[in-house]
Design goal:
2 helices; alpha+beta; about 110 residues; 3-stranded antiparallel beta sheet
Length: about 110
């Protein structure tokens, strides 16, 4: 599962009902926001050019506004600045390996 883009918290299996995690788009990429980070006022999310809402989803190269329905093509990122690195959270590879071992029945 994808971690929170702000704090790196990992999503756990939800209790019955809707997930308290929120989706958003940042720098043309789909991100998840944990319940704690949702309380922050400046989430630095992309917004809709039509209505200004940050209720966006990104899928198959398109960004859709859930507030007004505007759909646009996602622009390819050319910014690879060190201020916004894309690195997995610490321990992620060990978690993935353990999950694969459980699923595949490896000892």
């Amino acid at each position: 599962m994808m971690p929170c883009y702000r704090c790196g918290a990992r999503q756990t299996d939800p209790v019955r009902g809707a997930s308290p995690w929120q989706r958003g788009v940042r720098n043309e990429s789909q991100v998840l926001i944990c319940p704690d980070c949702q309380r922050l006022h400046d989430l630095d999310l992309d917004s809709c050019a039509g209505c200004g809402s940050t209720a966006l989803i990104c899928r198959l190269g398109e960004v859709e506004c859930r507030a007004c329905g505007t759909v646009r093509m996602a622009m390819a990122r050319t910014d690879t600045s060190p201020a916004d690195p894309v690195t997995p959270p610490p321990g992620l590879s060990a978690e993935v390996e353990a999950a694969l071992n459980r699923v595949l029945g490896r000892a």
